[in-house]
Design goal:
Strands 1, 2, 4, 7 and 9 form a five-stranded antiparallel β-sheet that branches. Strands 3-8-5-6 form a four-stranded antiparallel β-sheet. It is built from six helices and nine strands. It starts with a helix and ends with a strand. It has 250 residues and is α+β, with helices and mostly antiparallel strands.
Amino acid sequence: FSLHQILMAAEASESRLVTLRQELLEYMAARFLNPSDLVRLRSVCRALRDTLPEVEQFSGHSFHIAEPREYSLYLWGPVLRHHIASIEVDIRWVDQGWGNRKGQIFFGLMDLPAEVRDAQVAPPTPAVAPASAAAAASAPEATEGAGDARHEPRHRVFRCGVGFDRRTNTDERGRVPELQDFENCPAVAETNQPLGVAEHEEQHLHRVLNSGSVVDQSRPGQRLRVRRIVGHGGGHQLHVKSFHVWVAYR
């Protein structure tokens, strides 16, 4: 063999060894580390940051709302840059403290037109629940900002993409849709009670979702949507005091 051939073989072996190390590290990270652990490990050095899976973090505002409530938007998550490997959730929440338990949080995947997919949503102002169901019926609507489906003007009717023309980026009425028009549209996939149901006593829940429809069906370009439901009948309330999410990609 010539010296050139020997050097080329050595470089190829070294390159393959580096690749194997990276693949092993990625596998170990995905198998044994939660997304929040990946964030801390990626901050150790540039080599780990460049090797370990990417993690995206977002948080929701605190809120305290009462019935009656249908499914409504809590907040929009990020536009996915890759397929999801896992979702880690840290939440402090509680319901009305008595009766049936119905308060829930859901994650969903949305395929949105590019024109609205990347829209930024201003942080909403926290809403406070009235002291009683009777007060809720008579009180004016609380202002919770751009992220609340209750405040969509009644004259804005968008049928979740029906009749949407991607050549003109308008619906069948010739109107350009906005991100808020998709708050209650069907999701590509939505989790089924990923966090369970809110308890009567305040609970600090930490959960990692490694599988399920949202994780399994995710793909780049979709947007993550977080919805909530309080429940009907008997003065139900839902109080979320903190909400933090880490999304690990693969």
